[in-house]
C-alpha cells in the first residue's frame, strides 16, 4: 500500500492519552472516529458558512491502531457539495515517537447537513 501525506495543513491535531485505550491497549476506535467527526465538522461548517450536523459516515476504514502518545493529525477536504449537504474526505495520520514517523491510521467520508439558527436544513451557496 502506497501512502502519500495529504497536502495542506491538518485540520485537527491532538495527542492520544491513556484514558482513551480499549481493552487491547490501543486507542479506542470510537475516540478516533469522534476526532474525525470534529475535524470534518470544521471543514463542512467553513464550506457551508453555517452550523452543520453529521448525517452519515461512509467508507470508514481503520488501517492501523493508534497508540498512547501518538499525535493524531486529521486532514480534511471537501469531496462534494449538495443542495444542503457537504461530504468531507478525512484522513487520519499518527505521528509516532521521537523519530516523528507518520503513518496513515484511518480514513473515511463524513457527510454533514447545513442548518439554520432553528436547526432546520438550509441550502448551501454553490457559487
Automatic annotation (TrEMBL):
The keyword Ribosomal protein does not apply. InterPro entries: Cytosol_ACT, HOTDOG_ACOT, HotDog_dom_sf, Thioestr_dom. PROSITE patterns: HOTDOG_ACOT. Residues 6-118 form the HotDog ACOT-type domain. Keywords: Hydrolase. One of its GO terms (biological process) is fatty acid catabolic process. The keyword Hydrolase applies. It comes from the Bacteria. GO terms for cellular component: cytosol. GO terms for molecular function: long-chain fatty acyl-CoA hydrolase activity. Pfam families: 4HBT. Belongs to the acyl coenzyme A hydrolase family. PANTHER family: ACYL COENZYME A THIOESTER HYDROLASE, ACYL-COA THIOESTER HYDROLASE YCIA. This is Acyl-CoA thioesterase. It comes from Maritimibacter harenae.
